[in-house]
């Protein structure tokens, strides 16, 4: 039954993507909300993260900024707990959108750059298109037209690749890229190129389903005519852009276009219209409560910094695994969770045999590299397990893991030790294999006291060393 529901969630997400492409955002949002509830119920972490992402992007496209802010903190917490590289890539791009809304440009570009880094690591063409297209827009806002053009052209190149994979999604990205590059060309006074891109957008066979993109293209025409001093035509297009934004409730775009419209109206000295637009602008500003939005973003930033500081306190900077502070602060809570779920828990103590010799012969820099190789080996092998990897001190590490099957833990310990013995490094032309001793204590589903389990495992470690090193000993309570 669970497997069937997970398959249903996968199909649901495909449907949501199709609806977003077709511009059926309200229907897509309803499905995304329902799917998120089911994914939470199933504790399907991958689906939860994907559906949070869909929910936020749809709310953003609809201009529901308050709703975005309502769930972004939950999304961030879930991402930090269960996320993988793909999820952080999505999260950083969403944070870029939020920082842009409140005008914190440095953070916007920083978040976009983080997302681009992950997109390259994952070779995710779709995200490269999105990121570079967003960067094009951001650089326009910053007045960096050359950088904006470079980003827009990169987005266009990657979109050519995306056409081979997902032509319908690429078609939507095509008109979004057109809109941003059009602004670049218009501001560079290459009016013909800018107008050609805007015409291509408005003549697209999918534009009737995408009000946001249509409104942005109309805004582009307003900018085109304003820059050419065809001010009455600019007023007409700015008003059309505002009307389109009103149809799907995008207050942020309305405010931006109203500011541009007011500038043109002042140049024309159309006093009556200036009064009407100013009044509408003030009413909209009061409704949006921009200060409240900025405060929410600042609170979010504070929470992010707090999480980062806490994470730094719990993690060893050399190897990236947990440190002894985790044992003091978090271990009891984790063991209580394991006990409540009636799983077996194993504590393993590991160290590198004759590690001091490496340090004495080759220096601490090489010793640090060996520790990093060892820690990375533990992380790679145990990445699918419910596990905590801790650097206890020097070359001694602790692994705490749980599972419902004691035999699985014993088999895993055997495979882990064999894998660790395959790790190696080269120094001055000589190839060295790591030699690892390990002691493991597996509980009896009654004793969940960390100190007692650790002492038993530590005793097993010394037995392994006394047995000739490069070995492991398991004790079952």
UniProtKB/TrEMBL annotation:
Keywords: TPR repeat. TPR repeats lie at residues 215-248. The keyword Manganese does not apply. Residues 343-477 form the GGDEF domain. It comes from the Bacteria. SMART domains: GGDEF. This is GGDEF domain-containing protein. It comes from Lysinibacillus piscis.
């Amino acid at each position: 039954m669970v497997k069937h529901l997970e398959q249903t969630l996968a199909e649901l997400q495909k449907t949501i993507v199709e609806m977003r492409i077709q511009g059926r955002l309200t229907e897509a949002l309803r499905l995304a909300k329902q799917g998120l509830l089911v994914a939470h119920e199933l504790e399907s972490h991958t689906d939860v993260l994907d559906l949070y992402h869909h929910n936020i992007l749809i709310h953003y496209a609809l201009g529901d900024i308050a709703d975005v802010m309502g769930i972004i903190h939950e999304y961030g917490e879930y991402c930090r707990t269960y996320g993988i590289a793909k999820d952080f890539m999505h999260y950083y791009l969403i944070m870029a959108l939020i920082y842009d809304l409140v005008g914190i440009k440095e953070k916007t570009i920083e978040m976009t750059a983080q997302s681009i880094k992950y997109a390259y690591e994952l070779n995710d063409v779709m995200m490269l298109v999105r990121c570079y297209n967003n960067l094009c827009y951001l650089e326009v806002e910053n007045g960096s037209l050359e950088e904006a053009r470079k980003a827009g052209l990169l987005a266009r190149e990657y979109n050519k690749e995306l056409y081979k994979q997902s032509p319908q999604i690429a078609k939507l990205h095509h008109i979004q890229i057109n809109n941003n590059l059009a602004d670049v060309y218009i501001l560079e006074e290459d009016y013909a190129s800018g107008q050609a891109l805007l015409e291509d957008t408005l003549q697209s066979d999918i534009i009737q389903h995408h009000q946001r993109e249509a409104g942005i293209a109309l805004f582009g025409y307003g900018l085109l005519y304003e820059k050419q001093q065809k001010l009455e035509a600019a007023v007409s297009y700015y008003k059309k852009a505002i009307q389109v934004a009103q149809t799907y409730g995008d207050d942020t775009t309305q405010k931006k276009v109203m500011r541009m419209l007011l500038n043109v109206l002042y140049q024309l000295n159309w006093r009556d219209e200036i009064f009407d637009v100013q009044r509408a602008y003030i009413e909209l500003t009061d409704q949006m409560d921009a200060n409240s939005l900025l405060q929410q973003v600042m609170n979010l930033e504070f929470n992010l910094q707090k999480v980062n500081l806490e994470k730094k306190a719990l993690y060893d900077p050399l190897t990236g695994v947990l440190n002894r502070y985790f044992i003091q602060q978090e271990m009891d809570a984790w063991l209580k969770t394991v006990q409540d779920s009636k799983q077996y828990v194993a504590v393993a103590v590991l160290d590198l045999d004759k590690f001091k010799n490496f340090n004495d012969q080759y220096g601490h820099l090489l010793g640090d590299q060996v520790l990093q190789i060892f820690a990375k080996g533990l992380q790679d092998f145990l990445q699918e397990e419910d596990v905590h990897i801790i650097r206890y001190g020097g070359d001694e590490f602790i692994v705490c893991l749980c599972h419902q099957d004691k035999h699985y833990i014993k088999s895993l310990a055997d495979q882990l030790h064999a894998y660790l013995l395959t790790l190696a490094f080269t120094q001055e032309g000589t190839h060295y294999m790591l030699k690892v001793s390990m002691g493991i204590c597996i509980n009896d589903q009654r004793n969940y006291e960390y100190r007692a389990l650790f002492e038993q495992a530590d005793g097993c470690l010394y037995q392994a060393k006394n047995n000739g090193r490069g070995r492991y000993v398991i004790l079952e309570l």
